Amino acid sequence: MSDSPASQRAGVSPNPVNPGPRSDDGERGPAMIELRKLTKAFGSKIALRGVDLRVEAGESLVIFGPNGAGKSTLIRILSSLSRPTGGRVLIGGLDLATHADGIRRYLGVVSHAPLLYDSLTAEENLRFFAQLYGMKEPAPRIAEMLERVGLTARRNDLVRTFSRGMVQRLAIARALLHDPQLLLLDEPDTGLDPQAAEMLHDLLMQVSGRISHAANQQVSTSANQQDLESADQRRSHAATERTIVTVTHSIERGLAIADRVVILSGGKIVFADSARGMSQTEFRPLYDKYVGGGR
Questions:
Q1: What is the gyration radius of the CA atoms in the chain, in angstroms?
Q2: Residue 279 phi, psi dihedral angles, 5° rounding
Q3: Residue 274, pLDDT score
Q4: Which of 72, 78, 101, 150 is the most exposed place for a label (fewest CB within 10 A)?
Q5: 171 with 188, same domain?
Q6: 213 shares its domain with 268
Q7: Cα dihedral sign, 126-128-134-138
Q8: Could you tell me if residue 289 is inside a domain?
């Protein structure tokens, strides 16, 4: 698979974690993510208990579960911010334990901790992270991402002056700046008011290759047919190329962006299935069954 247009535009080097296509004999190549008997302990407390999980390239996986289930611990391990106690983590067939430096630059991470510098402006933050990612001539990509998250007018303002919703939008711009093939989202709407959460959800719908009805209406009234076709191609490309793992408490919003869902409880995967066609009404009894109605 060749580099995406955004990667070429941003000056990012070829991706070493590309799992590649399925072979001619029908066997699957390496998954984008493969967890084998993954465990994590904090002293006597066991957060993850032998988790086995496979996430295919281009798949959008949503992880649900009650507080203390191990969801954030799993995301921290995937993002190389925490080391597992046991088991293996393979990304694109590469072992994260031995290839973390090479893999890390191809990850995008969004969590309730924005990982931004509030003493820098929005543009300065993105320029700093562009340097960390080794991007060449990042100015056009920075401008593009600021426009995409609706922060162009605030590009020269210090992040400390931003609302919680604006900070999260900038965090998404930072995570997507280098066009990562793997995007990890850990409850990114935590602490947001309903309006900001809805705006964030619309942005994530676009990132995952889907688009909300409201956004579709806006595009339809403001672009000609050629622009619409280009937008469709971009969304289709994003859905095909980018793998997304999302942790959320919102069943409605999680199902809206999911290809597959997992319920994590007590550090174990207790349910996993395709989300295609699954409604909130269908999923809620399953969730309550496996976690006892906990949140």
A1: 19
A2: -95, 165
A3: 95
A4: 101
A5: no
A6: yes
A7: positive
A8: yes
pLDDT of residue 221: 38
* Residues of the chain below pLDDT 70: 1-29, 210-241, 293-295
Q: Does any domain span residue 16?
A: no
Q: Looking at the chain, how many residues does it have?
A: 295
Please tell me whether residues 189 and 98 are part of one structural domain: yes
Q: What is the DSSP string of the chain?
A: -PPPHHHHHHTPPPPTT---PPPTTS-----SEEEEEEEEEETTEEEEEEEEEEE-TT-EEEEE--TTSSHHHHHHHHTTSS--SEEEEEETTEEHHHHHHHHHTTEEEEESS----TTSBHHHHHHHHHHHTT-SS-HHHHHHHHHHTT-GGGTTSBGGGS-HHHHHHHHHHHHHTT--SEEEEESTTTT--HHHHHHHHHHHHHHTT---HHHHHHHHHHS-HHHHHHHHHHHHHHHHH-EEEEE-S-HHHHHHH-SEEEEEETTEEEEEEE-TT--HHHHHHHHHHHHTT--
Q: Which two tokens stand for residue 104?
A: 């890390």
Tell me what pLDDT residue 83 has.
Answer: 95
Nearest to 257 by CA among 219, 177, 202, 217: 202
Q: Find the CATH number of the domain harbouring 45.
A: 3.40.50.300
Q: How many C-beta neighbours within 10 Å does residue 129 have?
A: 20
173 shares a domain with 185: no
Indicate whether 54 and 154 sit together in one domain.
Answer: no
Question: What residues contact 277, with CB distance under 8 A and at least 6 apart?
Answer: none
Q: Which of 160, 178, 196 corresponds to the end of one domain? A: 178
